[in-house]
Amino acid sequence: MNAKIKSLVFSITKTNILLTIIATLLISLFNFRFGVAFLVGSAIATINFTANAIVINKVISNRRGALKIQLSFVLRMLLILLFTLIFMRDVKELAFYLIGFILHQISIFIYTKKIRPYKKQ
C-alpha cells in the first residue's frame, strides 16, 4: 500500500480509536449496554474503512478487479446489517450503535482539519 494511503488510514484509525475509547467510557458510566453498542458501531466503521482502503488499493495497483470491489462492498454491508439487526431489539441501543458508526466520519473530519495547515505550504 502507498505510504501516503497507509499514513491516512493509520491516522484516521488512531483518531477514531482515541475518540471511541473516551466516548465509550463516558457512555458506559451511564449505561453499559449503550457503551457496548457504541463501541461495536465504531469498531465496525473502522473495520469497514480499513477493508475499503485495502481492497481499493489492491484493485488500483492490479488495474482490474471491479468484481472484488463489488463483492467486498456487499460483504461489508451485510456485516453492518447483521449488527444493526442485533441492536434493533432496543431503539436506544440501535441509536448508540449508529452514533458509534457515525463517529468515524468525525474522525475523518478531524484528520482533514489536522492536515490542512500542512497542505498550504
TrEMBL record:
Keywords: Cell membrane, Membrane, Transmembrane, Transmembrane helix. Signal peptide: none annotated. It is found in: Cell membrane. The chain crosses the membrane at residues 7-30, 36-57, 69-88, 94-112. GO terms for cellular component: plasma membrane. It holds the Pfam family ATP-synt_I. The keyword Transcription does not apply. This is ATP synthase subunit I.
